[in-house]
Design brief:
The chain is mainly beta. The protein has two helices and seven strands; from the N terminus they run H-E-E-E-E-E-E-E-H. It has a five-stranded antiparallel sheet, with no helix packed on it. It has a two-stranded antiparallel ribbon with strand order 2-3. The longest helix is centred in the N-terminal third of the chain and has 9 residues. The chain is globular, with a radius of gyration of 15 Å. The termini are far apart.
Length: 92
């Protein structure tokens, strides 16, 4: 059974994400886990692990220190290759 779950759980690992709401960063991927940091809106991070309801991310905090922890998936959005459609439209 693990063979079938492995590719699904690896999905999105290594992709950049951005917070779109203030988000708590937790020590473990579970409700009630210790909060180790808080991310403001529009902070970029990279997914390093995918769990059921949380992504483990790595990010640089406001002091320039590289940190990691778990953030609820619903608080993050994947950063698309082209940020907006306007960037890819030719100028008139």
């Amino acid at each position: 059974m693990g063979i079938f779950l492995q590719p699904y759980l690896q999905e999105n690992v290594g992709l950049p994400v951005m917070t779109y709401v203030v988000s708590n960063v937790k020590e473990l991927p579970q409700k009630g886990a210790k909060i180790v940091a808080q991310l403001k809106e529009n902070v970029e991070a990279t997914i390093i692990e995918n769990t059921n309801y949380y992504y483990k991310i790595t990010f640089t905090d406001e002091n320039g220190i590289q940190r990691e922890g778990y953030v609820a998936k619903r608080n993050l959005k994947l950063i698309e290759e082209s940020e907006t459609e306007e960037d890819s439209l030719p100028e008139k």
